Amino acid sequence: MTAVALSPAVPRRGVVPQLALGEARRLVLHPVMLLATAFFVAGSTSSFFQGITVVQAYEMVTASISFFPGIPAVLAAHMVVTRDRRAGSLDLLSAVPARREEQVWALALAALVPAALCLVLNTALFTVLLAGDYFAEVPTVWHVVQGPLTVLGACLLGTMVGVWAPTLLAPVVTMVALVVVHMAIAEQGAAALFGTAMFWVDWGPFDGSVWVGLHPGSAAWHQLYLVGLCGMALAAAVVRVAERKGTAVALGLVSVGVALVGGLAQLP
Length: 268
Prior knowledge:
This protein has helices at about 15-30, 30-50, 55-60, 65, 70-80, 85, 90-95, 100-110, 110-130, 140-165, 170-185, 220-240, 245-265. By secondary structure, the protein is mainly α. Helix 1 (about 15-30) crosses helix 8, helix 5 (about 70-80) runs parallel beside helix 10 (about 140-165) and helix 9 (about 110-130) runs antiparallel to helix 10.
């Protein structure tokens, strides 16, 4: 159960930020998230000993973190949002007004924490690679923030799936679907821009040691597209549990608009 106790009357002002502190701690320290983050750190560290090509260096910054801890973050967020159900404590919370809605908003706020931590890790990795002159072309700030932004989206997606489908099979299917969709559109030209983990580097016919260039498209607008997807996932989660759905519907409509604008503007 959540440590913050709520009155059976109107929820107190600021209760969502208070809840978010606990949810952020649970999310960041969840074993799945810890293992996935450790995998990213270990994999990145080992690459320096094995040798890094110019293409690999770029992809380490732009997309590696989208897979670890990005994809497992879906499972971690799902398990956090469904912990009360799995613990059999939903009946104890049913008398508390808007308890589920507050938890969803709190988890959305808490999702910013692992995303921020991933931004710190990705920025540190970028700095080391830049100092070591591993880049043939230096990634822009938009490329650096892409991975952490997908981690934010993964946490929100896991929350949404947990609200609508609390069974443990649901996040597994979702993670597999994310990988399958990525693989299906990764080499399909402009269609790849409508994925989440965009690999910007064009390998060409080489092994990664020769710099060919970047795939066409706008990295800045792609991040706006990802922001729209994040908002859509949050709106879909909130609308499931909100007593008054107007805010969630408005958020969903705005997010769809943002995703459409970003999605179209990113195209070459």
